[in-house]
């Protein structure tokens, strides 16, 4: 039965399993894990990015079902990560170019000292209960993602801080006194990590009833039927799929490799679009010298593809 189900899943969503994961934990030995973790991933053909820091682990990786299983088993064998959870989706082709394991100061960069979700954090809300919470007139719903992510999809009625990076979020909260006008704050992000850290910050700022979507948008799109959904648009993901939709099916967005923003078919048809060089979102922000440099990079990418290689700059 397992083999039949596995084959069915492959046919429906693609041969590659994509695992998004994070876990907050006190992890002072994080530097020592980098080399064995990288070696294991490379030996199993796994690609993606994993971040290690004193506060835990974060990242997304892709590979065969067996190879991802091996990596997850290795991580959960570490005492600090025994409770690690992950979210699965599928990809029709390998969505990453290479494997990276990076050492960081934070696994998600907020830039505020002593914010520890293991010490204080908001209340988890399961996807099945999320609609009721965000439909409550006593709730302010906040998207903790950045502007290029919110541009292609949000929850109905959510406040969009329009931040460029997560580092801007704390100051946005401090500048918005209106957030105190309602008793409940509900926060969400792609996979759960940013809103978990954001709820810890909000609690430190004196907000009492703070909630966050467990598993993030990805878990909501996986579990909540489209006909019941309050999600509008697509969800940006940090790999070559660019976006996913309900049921975690691959979306229709592409990536502008000049500005790294998601673009639609209409934007690709724009006279400002040139593959690897510009799109309507970034054309006027770049100089002709920039575009000349990007054209050369794109030329090298195409040459590498013809030789069956992956170009690092691509």
List the helices and strands and how they pair.
Elements: H1 2-13, E1 16-24, H2 30-43, E2 47-53, E3 56-63, H3 65-76, E4 85-91, E5 99-103, E6 123-125, H4 127-135, E7 139-143, H5 147-150, E8 153-155, H6 169-175, E9 184-188, H7 193-204, E10 209-213, H8 216-223, E11 231-233, E12 235-236, E13 243-244, E14 254-255, E15 262-263, H9 265-268, H10 288-306
Parallel strand pairs: 2-5, 6-10, 7-9, 9-10
Antiparallel strand pairs: 1-3, 1-4, 2-3, 8-11, 12-13, 14-15
Give structural notes.
By secondary structure, this protein is an alpha/beta fold. It folds into three domains: 16-103, Alpha-Beta Plaits (2-Layer Sandwich); 123-233, Oxidized Rhodanese, domain 1 (3-Layer(aba) Sandwich), CATH 3.40.250.10; 262-307, no CATH class. The chain is 32% helix and 22% strand. The chain is globular and about 55 Å long. Strands 4-1-3-2-5 form a five-stranded mixed β-sheet. A four-stranded parallel β-sheet has the order 6-10-9-7. It has ten helices and 15 strands. Its EC number is 1.14.-.-. Belongs to the TrhO family. Catalyzes oxygen-dependent 5-hydroxyuridine (ho5U) modification at position 34 in tRNAs. One of its GO terms (biological process) is tRNA modification. Residues 135-229 form the Rhodanese domain.
What global shape is seen?
Answer: globular
Q: Give the H and E element order.
A: HEHEEHEEEHEHEHEHEHEEEEEHH
CATH class wording of the largest domain: Alpha Beta
Total number of helical segments? 10
Proportion in helices = 25-40%
Approximate strand percentage: 15-25%
How many strands, what sense, and barrel or not for the largest sheet? Answer: 5 strands, mixed
Low-confidence parts: 1-11
Alpha-beta content class: alpha/beta
**Overall pLDDT score:** 92
- State the end-to-end distance: 41 Å
Total domains, how many? 3
Q: How would you write the strand order of the largest sheet?
A: 4-1-3-2-5
């Amino acid at each position: 039965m397992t083999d039949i189900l596995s084959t069915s899943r492959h046919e429906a969503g693609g041969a590659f399993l994509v695992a998004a994961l994070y876990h907050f934990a006190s992890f002072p030995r994080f530097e020592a894990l980098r080399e064995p973790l990288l070696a294991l991933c490379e030996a199993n053909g796994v690609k993606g990015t994993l971040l290690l820091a004193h506060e835990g682990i974060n990242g997304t990786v892709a590979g065969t079902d067996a190879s991802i299983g091996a990596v997850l088993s290795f991580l959960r064998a570490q005492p600090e990560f025994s409770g690690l959870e992950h979210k699965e989706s599928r990809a029709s082709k390998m969505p990453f170019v290479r494997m990276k394991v990076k050492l960081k100061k934070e696994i998600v960069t907020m830039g505020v000292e002593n914010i520890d979700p293991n010490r204080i954090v908001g209340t988890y809300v399961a996807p099945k209960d999320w609609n009721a919470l965000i439909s409550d007139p006593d709730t302010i719903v906040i998207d903790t993602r950045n502007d290029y992510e919110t541009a292609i999809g949000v929850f109905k009625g959510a406040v969009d801080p329009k931040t460029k990076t997560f580092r801007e979020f704390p100051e946005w909260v401090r500048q918005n006194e209106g957030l105190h006008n309602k008793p409940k704050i509900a926060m969400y992000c792609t996979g759960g990590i940013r809103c978990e850290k954001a709820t810890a910050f909000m609690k430190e700022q004196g907000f009492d009833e703070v909630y966050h979507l467990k598993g993030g948008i990805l878990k909501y799109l996986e579990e909540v039927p489209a006909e019941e959904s309050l999600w509008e648009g697509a969800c940006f993901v940090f790999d070559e799929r660019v976006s996913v939709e309900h049921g975690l099916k691959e979306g229709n967005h592409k990536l502008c490799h000049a500005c790294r923003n998601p673009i639609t078919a209409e934007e690709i048809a724009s006279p400002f679009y040139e593959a690897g060089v510009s799109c309507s979102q970034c054309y006027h922000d770049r100089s002709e010298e920039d575009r000349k440099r990007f054209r050369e990079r794109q030329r090298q990418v195409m040459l590498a593809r013809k030789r069956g290689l992956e170009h690092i700059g691509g």
